[in-house]
Amino acid sequence: MPSTPIDQLKPRTIRGIKRLAKRIKKAEEIQYTAALNKAAQQAGFDNFLAANTAFKRGHFHG
Fold first, then answer.
1. Which among 16, 38, 44, 57 is placed 20 to 30 Å from 7, CA to CA?
2. Is 16 in contact with 6 (CB distance < 8 Å)?
């Protein structure tokens, strides 16, 4: 079964964002913090900080 391209994944948890960020970091050879922001954007957030805040406050339910 072929895997989904990285740019089409949409994580629904902070853990999922972090896993995707590791894949992005490796694929694009960028810093982990930049990859976290890219992964969070794919999940619909402005950046990782916004995603983390939303999940901690319970404002996001995937």
1. 57
2. no
- Write out the chain's pLDDT in tens, 62 residues: 567 888 888 999 999 999 999 999 999 999 999 999 999 999 999 999 999 999 998 866 55
Domains of the chain, by residue range, sit at 6-57
Alpha helices in 1-62 (DSSP H): 14-28, 32-42, 48-57
Of 41, 3, 7, 35, the residue nearest 19 (C-alpha): 35
**Pairwise CA distance, residues 37 & 31, whole Å:** 10
**Encoded amino acid at 41, one letter:** Q
CB 13 within 8 A of CB 42: no
